[in-house]
Structure to design on (714 residues):
């Protein structure tokens, strides 16, 4: 086991930086909680800042603020980013696995029935969250994975498509050709690639969409293309009920993005919802899971990754906290109410060092 | 949503009985806790009674009571039932999916590192828990599913085999031929099948193996062939960290068997471990999740399924509770310590009616 542990540490170190991280001992004063102390429902929240937030939440908000259905609202919102090839961490256009194949994960949970649905390693279908919803509604199961999930999607009339955009293929090819000098793949003779300007870090993009309707009913979706260049079949926290998403109609909802393995082994979103049930505000609950993950990893000096949590309670209070952030470039989330769109800056535990920008 | 809910209810009703269930308002006096109040470590526990318990736990106990490794102990024990074709709910010989294909799920979690590994819908490999262990030890991921999991197993030298025994094939064929009179499959003209004497209910067998070593370190495995006749790609709670299994080295471990969908949507095993962290005994914690599941389903009259939880804390105290049981035929678990093997009768919430035997 120690062998396994040290290899993981090595990998994280190799992907991050050598220097010790400055550690913010406590989360900074939570101005968010104050700002949102006058909470309101209906509300829709997404784990992105204003630009994506507006695009993603608008169709959901249109339903929620009218006579639309709660589940339709979160689905239509999540579909926006799934269908957009410009987002390279969710749905169509997502970064592929190590073999250049895009495999998508998503789940949905619906408070009034406490039911849920999930698909994992789904290929060829642009809107995995819609397939997850059908698993919930049209089967007696919760989770379908791999080939079985694809066949189920076909049975329900989803159109198959090549999910690998040229942009994603070129990034993957660059990674593949520069992976090692012990294989037979060469980079271009002049070393130049298109899209050279973009950062090439292995993102865990993902998106969470959470909503509370006029009646105080709660629902949520998490959808992702998962870790770029992953081993085929790898599934992170996103489609796992309790990890990447949890909804409880008595309490509220929570979702996670970032390094999924850490969220899986701490049951992150369920942890957040249970802390809210115990009396914490959404903000406090999001901060508590970040602390828990850092603790499990042996403290801030051992942590070379980040996770971000968002949460909303039944009253429409929201929270957002991350493990890592940077002053002036805080991780963000956003939400819509009848007052329009507002951006939340996450509180965070560890100041990201300069060179890791 | 109401449509989905009512179909689920219908299916459960169809599989169960029509009559209202007598409800045991509180769990009966917990004699187990008393019996095991003098707890001892090392200890190994499995979610089966004496016969299977002895077979399964012996190799693990031999390691734990000597100088063997904790993780080897739970793996070797779980391998016993995975490799045994006579068990039709785990590993080789497990009941196949609706197309006659055996797909296995398993996970492992190791307290000292809080690391875990999982495989889902793995075909052709008899020992999925050993593959899950390698996912934990030899990748930076936790979960591999479907074809990707199989290829990973091949890469690590696992031998492929046909997992469908004649016994399991015949049962599947009987189910298939009697599924509907609107398809083109006929039962035999005389209606007779081999193995007619066996019950043909859709079992959720599964096994949990939990252990605490001399140092108080904790580990666990859950392994299963999943629900018989499931939709291809369906995955239950067994390989989900926090659902079918959870281990926390500060607290103990818990595992679940039974209807997996209920355990997924309540994060059952994590719930048990968190209750133990909060001060409950393993027995109380197992009972608390059973109550929670019944509550979420709208109370005992709505519950036509069962789940069983087992737990052990760091001190070697054990617990076992189920949703449904029958006086004189209580669900069982067993454990081994230096005092030999002991059987635990589960406490339960709902008395199983006669006709459901």
């Amino acid at each position: 086991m120690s062998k396994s542990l040290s290899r993981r540490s090595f990998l994280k170190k190799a992907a991050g930086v050598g220097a010790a991280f400055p550690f913010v001992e406590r989360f900074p004063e939570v101005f968010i909680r104050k700002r949102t102390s006058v909470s309101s429902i209906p509300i829709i929240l997404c784990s992105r800042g204003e630009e994506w937030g507006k695009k993603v939440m608008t169709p959901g908000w249109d339903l929620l603020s009218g006579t639309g259905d709660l589940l339709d609202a979160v689905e239509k919102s999540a579909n926006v980013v799934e269908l957009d090839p410009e987002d390279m961490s969710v749905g169509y256009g997502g970064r592929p696995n190590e073999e250049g194949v895009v495999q998508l994960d998503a789940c949905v949970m619906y408070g009034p029935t406490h039911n849920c649905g999930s698909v994992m390693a789904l290929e060829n279908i642009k809107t995995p969250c819609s397939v997850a919803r059908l698993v919930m509604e049209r089967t007696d199961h919760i989770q379908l994975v791999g080939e079985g999930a694809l066949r189920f999607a076909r049975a329900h009339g989803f159109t198959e498509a090549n999910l690998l955009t040229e942009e994603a293929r070129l990034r993957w090819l660059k990674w593949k050709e520069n992976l090692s000098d012990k294989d037979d793949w060469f980079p271009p003779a002049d070393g130049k690639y298109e899209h050279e300007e973009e950062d090439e870090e292995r993102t865990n993009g993902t998106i969470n969409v959470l909503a509370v309707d006029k009646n105080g009913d709660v629902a949520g979706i998490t959808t992702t293309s998962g870790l770029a260049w992953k081993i085929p079949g790898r599934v992170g926290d996103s489609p796992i009920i309790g990890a990447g998403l949890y909804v409880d109609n008595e309490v509220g909802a929570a979702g996670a993005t970032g390094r999924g393995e850490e969220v899986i082994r701490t049951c992150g979103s369920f942890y957040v919802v249970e802390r809210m049930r115990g009396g914490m505000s959404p903000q406090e609950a999001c901060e508590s899971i970040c602390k828990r993950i850092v603790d499990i990893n042996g403290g801030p000096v051992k942590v070379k990754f980040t996770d971000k949590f968002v949460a909303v309670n039944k009253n429409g209070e929201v929270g957002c906290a991350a493990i890592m952030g940077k002053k002036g470039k805080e991780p963000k989330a956003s939400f819509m109410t009848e007052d329009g769109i507002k951006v939340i800056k996450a509180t965070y535990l560890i100041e990201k060092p300069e060179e890791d920008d």
